[in-house]
Amino acid sequence: xxxxxxxxxxxxxxxxxxxxxxxxxxxxxxxxxxxxxxxxxxxxxxxxxxxxxxxxxxxxxxxxxxxxxxxxxxxxxxxxxxxxxxxxxxxxxxxxxxxxxxxxxxxxxxxxxxxxxxxxxxxxxxxxxxxxxxxxxxxxxxxxxxxxxxxxxxxxxxxxxxxxxxxxxxxxxxxxxxxxxxxxxxxxxxxxxxxxxxxxxxxxxxxxxxxxxxxxxxxxxxxxxxxxxxxxxxxxxxxx
Amino acid sequence: xxxxxxxxxxxxxxxxxxxxxxxxxxxxxxxxxxxxxxxxxxxxxxxxxxxxxxxxxxxxxxxxxxxxxxxxxxxxxxxxxxxxxxxxxxxxxxxxxxxx
Lengths: 240, 100
What we know:
Shape of chain A: globular
Largest sheet of chain A: none
Number of helices of chain B: 4
Structural class of chain B: mainly alpha
Structural class of chain A: mainly alpha
Helix content of chain A: over 70%
Shape of chain B: flat
Helix content of chain B: over 70%
Number of domains of chain A: 2
Order of helices and strands of chain B: HHHH
Oligomer: heterodimer
Number of strands of chain B: 0
Distance between the termini of chain B: 46 Å
């Protein structure tokens, strides 16, 4: 593991800027979906403040949609919170990988930055930095990336909650596919360079599809990730 | 009031799983196999996130997600920047929605 010598101050500004730039695709992807979420939340009789607060302190898209739908269906508080927990359990695994990159950060940075881990920010933080990690594995870069993504989600929600339902559902669908495009675009280049990573990713797809037939999607993703990543123990050679 | 409590509860049960690794994954050097497992998580997680989820974006029209996903695959094989890969998959879906 290379030493991440941190020169405080000297380059933290440019690292922040780099991080903001890297987070912009997620901002753009989140924004219209968050507008749709804000609009749905208000339709589900949350007020504007509640809808915005949910995005501010939960910041987990899929579970927020599910939560609001459950409000609408008249589900109880315990049911909604339990569903949220199970749906977001996968972030534990993702946070393991992200925190592995933050080993040299202070505890406060780690605790702060970990709040912002979503499927998309996790994908960019772990696979988006390219070959050189000296700039991307810094608190400034990560904070820039994460807060940019966060602002897209929160500002979109606030706007959607104001009744700005001017985003047609077709755009929401297209942007959702765009976020899958983000995943695919991050996964394909390293998977083409390493047959091990390609096998791990493909196995995880098959496993998740199979598990999805047996259990809730949230659990399928968690188990498929744990087991398919386990293949890495046998596949990865020392120099990868 | 109860809405606020539910939102607070959702926030708590969402943050705890995100936070746990920050508390426990410290500077200790883990065994080799655990490092390899950690290193493999991004590939496994993205695989599971992509499939079959990409087909379910519009449950009535799974081929929309399929087309967007295939376009993203093609563009990333060409080593285009991630922004262009995203834009390409979005454009395909918008065009398909418009013309079909």
